[in-house]
Task: structure prediction
Amino acid sequence: MPLLKVEKVTVYYGKIRALHNVSLEVNQGEVVAVIGRNGAGKTTLLKSIMGLVELATGKISFQEEDITPKPPWERAYKGIGYVPEGRRLFPYLTVYENLLMGAYTIKDKEIVKKNMERVFRLFPRLKERQKQLAKTLSGGEGEMLAIGRGLMLNAKLLMMDEPSFGLAPIIIEDVYKTIEKLKSEGITILLVEQNAKKALEVADKCYVLDQGEIVYAADAETAAKDPAIKRLYLGA
Ligand code: ATP
Result:
C-alpha cells in the first residue's frame, strides 16, 4: 500500500503551468528522489502535497485517505513533515525554540517532550546546542535543525526540498548520512534535488521532473546506470 499517492496533479501560477499531470507513489519505508533542474517544478510538487498551492486538477492521498481538500496543518498533523528549501529557520530563536515551533499545534506537553527526545536522539549535536541561537549554527547543523523541526509532529513521511542546497561537499555527506539514519528508523522520505548524484545513492526509487512533467521513473540503481540520466543529470 503506498503511503503517499499523487495522481494527475496539475498546478498553475497564473498562466504558468508549473506541474502537468504529475503522478507518483511513495511506499512505506522508501526513500524516493525527484530530480530535475532549476524551475522543473520540484518545490511546487512538495507544496502541492503539503497543501500550500491550489491544484487545478488531481488528487493526493496519504495512508489511503484523500487529503486533497485538507489544509496544510491537518496534513502535518496526519504525519507529513516538510523541510523547506533554504531551511527557513528562525535565526534569533534558540535551537530548542526552533524545534518547539515545529510542534506549536500540539497542546499536550508530554507529547512535545517525547517528540523532542526523539529528535535529540537522532541528532545529539542539536541536544548539545539546544540553547544556542539558530544563527550560530553551521550550514550542516542548520540543515539538521530544519530536519529535526520537520519531525516534531511525529512525521511518518518527511519531505525535503534540496537538502544539499548551499552546503559544502563534506557537509552534504553528513546530511545524506542523516537521511540514511532516518530511513533506518522507519521514516519514509520524499526528497527533491538538483544534486542527482547524492540523491540516487540514497534513494530506492527515482522520478525525473522536467518542465512540470514526470518524464522518467525507475528504481534508483537502474536510473544511476541509465546513459541518458547520466548525461543529463549526473554530469557523466
Ligand atoms: P528550484 O530548484 O529553482 O526551486 P523547482 O524545480 O523547485 O526549482 P518550482 O519552484 O516548483 O521549480 O517552479 C516551477 C515553475 O513555476 C518555474 O517556472 C517557476 O518560475 C514557476 N513559479 C514558481 N513559483 C511561482 C510563483 N509564486 N509565481 C509564478 N511562477 C512561479
User: Anything to note?
Assistant: The beta strands are 2-13, 16-27, 31-35, 57-62, 65-66, 80-83, 157-161, 188-193, 205-210, 213-219. DSSP finds ten helices and ten strands in the chain. The chain has a mean pLDDT of 89. The first helix runs from residue 42 to 50.
